[in-house]
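PT: before anyone asks, these are the final sequences, not the draft ones from last week. 451 residues across everything. Please model them as a single complex and drop the result in this thread when it's through.
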Amino acid sequence: MTAPARDARVPTLSAWWVLIAGVIGFVASLTLTIEKIEILRNPSYVPSCNINPIVSCGSVMVTPQASLFGFPNPLLGIAAFTVVIVSGVLAVAKVPLPQWYWVGLTIGTVGGVAFVHWLIIQSLYRIGALCPYCMVVWAVTIPLLVVAASIVFRPVLEDGRGGAVARVLFQWRWSITTLWFTAVFLLIMVRFWNYWSTLI
Amino acid sequence: MADKPKFDLKNADSKFGRLLQIGGTAIVVLFAVGLVFYIVTQHNHKKDAAAAGGGAVRVTTDKLVTQPGTSNPKAVVTFYEDFLCPACGNFERNFGPTVAKLIDIGAIAADYDMVAILDSPRSQNYSSRAGAAAHCVADESIEAFRRFHTALYSTGIQPSESGTSFPDNAKLIEYARQAGVIGKVPDCVNSGKYLAQVEGAAAAANIKATPTIKINGTEYNPTTPDALVAKIKEIVGDVPGIDTAVAPAAA
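LR: through. Structure below.
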């Protein structure tokens, strides 16, 4: 291997993952922002994602939680996912990026994942509705953290550093992610069971 | 690099390791999903059973037309309504005066089964709270229940399903007072005495949409108040005063 040791070696699959997650997250944030503007322009506008009383973004978008920092959350998403897209493009193009860049992206994604979980709790237990585009963002942000963190930790672990716990976490990362998704899915099923059971 | 033993991260990627990972994860996922669904469906069965004993509020007068030789009404009209449902509001505002007349002349016994299919934390569970409050009012006085029921569906009081503010329990107690009862209503509303019953009412009666109207147990789709009167007349015959529907009050 001739690559300098200080360069993070990004596997092709991870690079594409970062790029695709960035694009999906960006499109979802953009759609939410456009829908929000439509609602502001015309309060009786029915957003494209109002499907039934539970799956409905209109009722979610007008809540205070949807503008946590005083402006609509998806604006943050547009900015953040743009960075993710650029990182993905650079990684796919095999442009060597320093380790600290991926550390930075991982820290940012940790923030994103924390925010997403706050939104999941708010959506389930405070607002009582699910917004499909928001769920797309939940669904890409969590695996994005796994990929970004594995880009950071893979070289460390391959060098034999890092404890046994870190190695087990790394090897089982996708199992843990799957279980995490299952847990969120089950929380959604249980929370709105009274409604889902009427659809059967 | 060669002098340092490289840790083999591919260990789990060997065929066996990968099978173990995928298989193990799949088993845990299936087990968790199965367990949760089992718990949820069991829990719901219990709720249904608890609610089955409850039932509707019956509104009649002593002029009620009964089947010969019994005290069973000839026509029982059951209304399954959710206090938050806009269609129920429309129905009550259009048909309510006619239904009230049919009750008053003794043509029908009206069963009001308050359901809560629109309950959500976003609406502060208004459907079940209002439904439970109506049961509390009915415990005190059926006449007051009729006024309370009409009031909650009137324009200006019925909250919008997509609105942001919903009457709280104190407000519901105030509406009950305006309908003419206090008594045990505040205790009954605040203790949530009928909440579970109203929450389970839709499932117990297998109601998927509101308003659902049943005449002697058969689902009836009302078109106009006049059609409803004609339908009732088919069942009970010529009751004094049945001939006309009552025009809804101008909104």
